[in-house]
TrEMBL record:
It comes from Streptomyces venezuelae. Keywords: Cell membrane, Membrane, Transmembrane, Transmembrane helix, Transport. It is found in: Cell membrane. Residues 20-403 form the Major facilitator superfamily (MFS) profile domain. GO terms for molecular function: transmembrane transporter activity. This is MFS transporter. The lineage of its organism: Bacteria, Bacillati, Actinomycetota, Actinomycetes, Kitasatosporales. The chain crosses the membrane at residues 21-45, 51-74, 149-167, 173-191, 223-246, 258-276, 288-321, 349-369, 376-395. Its main location: membrane. InterPro entries: MFS (IPR011701), MFS_dom (IPR020846), MFS_trans_sf (IPR036259), MFS_Transporters (IPR050171), Tet-R_TetA/multi-R_MdtG-like (IPR001958).
């Protein structure tokens, strides 16, 4: 491929998206550049503070539990208060709680603040995803979600290396650095991002729009089916950070070997996310989700046959390709199934599926490996991938394609005047 062709491909991948999207993208990148706590929490507690592995596991679990709780609360806030106020509140409170965690000494205080960090750091996700759906045209959403996912992985990859050097110098500096970058993220939102929540049509004679509450989401059978399938896929992908290092350690490989293998995941996402998204952008999402579920399940299942770093890296290549395809496609499906005035709640429930998986996956990996061995864990991922693929095939049968009229649905193309306070919130409870 010539340089000119590559430039044309990049230009087509990033063109046509509104300015507000790029400020949202920039805030995501800055936020992930400061991802210190999620990466080094276990090492900080065991190596720097001298706590046991079991206490470190408890703290990490509480951090994940905070994400489960905040997913639903933030989803409601996103719809009732607005996207922008929710993001500002989440990012400001994250900066405060992360900085506070670095100064905690008592085990109970560390555990309590870790729960708070988990709640605040996950609270902005429904708002970010809802705002992205608001401001990007339907036909561009898969590309937009892919670019955002690319920013997440690029930022995380850079932060993991930088934070490693910071941790060798001073862990407190890592906590304060993440707090500072999160504040920068909040400043970007405050200065550059207007509120995007669609207003209800209250004009005389307008068709009354049904109120969307959490109960509405939970009674939406097709959508909750997608959330359940998302949970299964999340269980599979999370094994890359919980099951894989344990299995490689039991097989005699070093932490450095695991680091080299898992590095392939981040590298491939950074290199392939944009070109693969251009290839899949307008293809049938049902087939893409079925294929990605099978690739994820059997990519991990192949780990049972790995005996060298090269083969482990090959399995990572397979399930990373599944991740590249699944993430933007599934996000596009979630938005497609979400009513305009209920996007926050719908996104909150979807985000919760990943948070719950982050709690269940370590327990699943530990139980299966201890009782039956790592090969049974990898066989289980193959089964989960097959179940998810069949589920996607069944749930998406009869789902109509987006029509030109749907693609013309209103999305704010031009920014409106920024306002810190909420716009008119719908009445009623959560």
């Amino acid at each position: 491929m010539s340089v000119a062709t590559m430039r044309q491909a990049v230009r087509e991948s990033v063109s046509g998206l509104p300015r507000a999207f790029w400020w949202l993208w920039a805030s995501t990148l800055v936020n992930r550049l400061g991802a210190f706590v999620a990466t080094f929490m276990t090492l900080y507690l065991t190596q720097d503070r001298g706590y046991s592995a079991s206490f470190a596991g408890l703290v990490v679990a509480l951090h994940g539990l905070g994400g489960v709780i905040s997913s639903l609360v933030a989803g409601v806030m996103t719809d009732r208060l607005g996207r922008r106020p929710t993001m500002l509140a989440a990012q400001a409170s994250t900066a405060f709680s992360v900085a506070l965690l670095g100064f905690m000494e008592h085990p109970a205080a560390i555990a309590a603040v870790a729960l708070l960090v988990g709640m605040t750091s996950n609270a902005s996700r429904p708002a970010v995803q809802a705002m992205m759906a608001d401001i990007v045209r339907p036909e561009d959403r898969v590309r937009a979600f892919a670019l955002n996912y690319w920013a997440i992985n690029l930022g995380f990859g850079v932060s993991a290396v930088a934070a490693g050097f910071v941790a060798e110098y001073n862990y407190l500096a890592g906590f304060l650095g993440e707090a500072a970058l999160t504040l920068v993220c909040a400043i970007l939102v405050f200065i550059k991002l207007p509120e995007s929540r669609p207003e209800r049509d209250l004009s005389a004679g307008a068709v009354a729009e049904p109120e969307v509450r959490l109960g509405t989401v939970l009674r939406d059978g097709r959508y909750m089916g997608v959330v359940g399938l998302s949970f299964l896929v999340s269980l599979i992908f999370t094994q890359g950070s919980v099951g894989l290092p344990v299995a490689m350690g039991e097989a005699g490989f070093t932490p450095g070997d695991y680091g080299l293998v898992v590095m392939v995941n981040g590298l491939l996402i950074v290199v392939l996310q944009i070109p693969v998204t251009r290839f899949i952008e307008h293809r049938d999402p049902q087939k893409l989700l079925v294929a990605s579920a099978l690739l994820a399940g059997y990519g991990f299942a192949m780990t049972a046959f790995a005996g060298s770093i090269a083969v482990y890296a090959l399995t990572v290549c397979i399930w990373t390709l599944a991740e590249i395809v699944n993430s933007p496609t599934q996000m596009g499906l979630v938005v497609r199934l979400s009513p305009v005035h209920g996007r926050g709640r719908y996104q909150g429930v979807y985000t919760m599926s990943w948070s719950v998986a982050s709690l269940v996956a370590p327990l699943m990996a530990g139980f299966v490996i201890d009782r039956h061995g790592a090969d049974w864990l990898w066989a289980a991922t193959g089964v989960l991938g097959t179940v998810a693929a069949v589920g996607y095939w069944v749930l998406m049968r009869g789902l109509p394609r987006e029509t030109p009229a749907a693609k013309a649905a209103p999305a704010p193309a031009a920014p409106v005047a920024p306002a810190v306070g909420p716009t008119s919130a719908p009445a009623g409870g959560a």
